[in-house]
Amino acid sequence: MAGAVHNYPFITGTTAECKFDNSLDAIFLTVPDGSILEANPAACKMFGWSAEEIRRIGRSGLVDVTDPRLVRVLEERARTGKAHAEITMIRADQSRFPAEITSTVFTVEDGQRRTSMIVRDLSERKRAEQRIEHLNRILRSIRDVDQLIVRERDPAVLMRECCRLLVDNRGYDSALIVLTDESGLPLSWAASGIASTSESLKALLGGGELPPCFSAECNGEVLLIDDRQGLCRTCPIAVNCADTRSLCVELIHERTVLGHFVAAPDHCLSVEEEVRSLFAEMAQHLAHALYSLKMESAHSESERKRQSLEAQLHQAQKMESVGRLAGGVAHDFNNMLSVIMGYTEMALARMDSNDPLREYLKEIYTASRRSADLTRQLLAFARKQTIAPRVLDLNDVVEGSLKMLRRLIGEDIDLAWMPGRDLWPINVDPSQIDQILANLCVNARDAIKSAGKIIIETGTRHFDQDYCADYADCVPGDYVLLTVSDDGCGMDEETQEHLFEPFFTTKGVGEGTGLGLATVYGIVKQNNGFVNVYSEPGQGSTFKIYLPRHKAAMEQMTTEDAADSYARGSETVLLVEDERSILTMARKMLEQLGYTVLTANTPSAALRLADDCQGEIHLLVTDLVMPEMNGRVLAERLHAIYPSVKILFMSGYSASTIAHRGVLEEGVHFIQKPFLKKDLAAKVRETLDRSQH
Fold first, then answer.
1. End of a domain among 265, 299, 333?
2. Nearest to residue 287, comparing CAs of 158, 136, 143?
3. Mean pLDDT of the chain
4. Could you tell me the pTM of the whole model?
5. Which stretch of DSSP H or E encloses residue 551?
6. How far apart are CA 71 and CA 218, in angstroms?
7. Which of the 8 DSSP states describes residue 220?
8. How far apart, in Å, are the Cα atoms of 291 and each of 156, 562, 619?
9. Strands of 272-402, DSSP E
């Protein structure tokens, strides 16, 4: 056949002469029954058969080297004289390729009918179309991710939706974003596609490790990962990626490494420079967004902390100003009351018992005594009352007051006394402790209204610099704790804001002076202590009085080693707390201890986090009293999602108070607010470890 020249009208559409042998397309000449008479060199090259082999194939030859649709092409050709189709052809080595077939029927000089079949290999065109389509999908992904960046302010949602868009747009088979801390350890991650189903990946990141490709030297460039026997040889997740290639790049902005971005492009396509460039562009956009959100979060947290401390300062200044005013008025008024009471008392002594004026003087004397009691409370609030402090054991003072306190609160209310062990000494006027107890117990009695319980507890606490940074009234050091809890009606936030102000009261006219809690506040401040109040409507109240440990005694005692190591861990902790300042403080503590921390300030947000979490949640640390649902209900619902999750409750109420309400069952782990980092570390470790035995 080589060098032959033929007249084939099916090539040009005319009777003009053409070079049959030089065509780049495969050309088959057949008779109407399909038997092959001749094939050009391009056909031999395209199908991998020699010319003789092609001719020997015979009638069924073209049917054997293509898919069944060729039969339909031949049938159409027989009816119309011309047919056209795109089908899959089969080479001699059984490999397949896409082809375009044009079939034409014509008549030769002797009147016999012949059929030509031109086969064009579409492999290159199909690859080009796939490449363009793939690039378009990547461009759509970049567009969608950019739109997401503009509207989404939650980093976790941004990462999750970014991965989903890349896979949903079919630009990539899988996507993974991992955020890291300053030490390069994983903080959080999101995945979609193949990566999201890899248990090995979840275990690796959940254990605080990164895939080896993340640490490969890439100098900020996009790294193509396809060396499964080299870089990935020791990677535990390589088995999930055996048939894929991945693009990996660091998420860097303003010289800050935020994490890593990995995606697996379509395995059928080559990874060209343009594909890498588009991936790098998308990574830059994502890094910029995550960096901005990180800075916004840091600024918001700093601003929130500043506003909180500013509010505490304003409140302290207001209380100080009111105290100075109250102290000055009380001091002057007390002097006048002393004159009234003195002369009244002398007049009564000189009057005859039957004198009709005697009853009037007695009423004057009684009223002046009551007024004097009020001025003493004002002076206590203003920290100007005369006191005689001495070193004492708080337990001894409380025990000496119990009989008096039981008479104050009445028989319908149970008074429980739970003394702490090994209390440090304090330097306080014991009569002031009596005043504190009397005022708090009377206040609790009025909140209970009928039958109920009041619990008095003592203990010790140490506050470090980290804790005190968030509380203006707190000074680092050792404190002796006096707690008075009740199961009364509780208080809302607005009431708590004015709780210690003089003459503020929620009682009816004539039922209270509004000086009881103001007196408590003044005594505590006079003795360099501070007060924390925990209360919710319908949940009772807990007042915690912190009085400083006596320094002289402290110097004689063995101090704790400040360098003691904390119990650490690497598990994932879901932290739920509706008070943002406590949520932020506890999160920082846990992260410094090595844990991966997911935070939520409502139970519903916590459950959404649990549903979206890509890894295992090992421990739930939750406040007990919250909006929407209490901590116990949240724990039960989370346990349905993660059956092996461990639970640690926390609350400002004392453990005994909560147990009295029946919220906690025996054996449930509990930590009481406020707590130190060391306390939290030990309790978290205890909860995780005990539950494993």
1. 299
2. 158
3. 76
4. 0.44
5. helix 551-556
6. 54
7. T
8. 13, 36, 29
9. 390-392
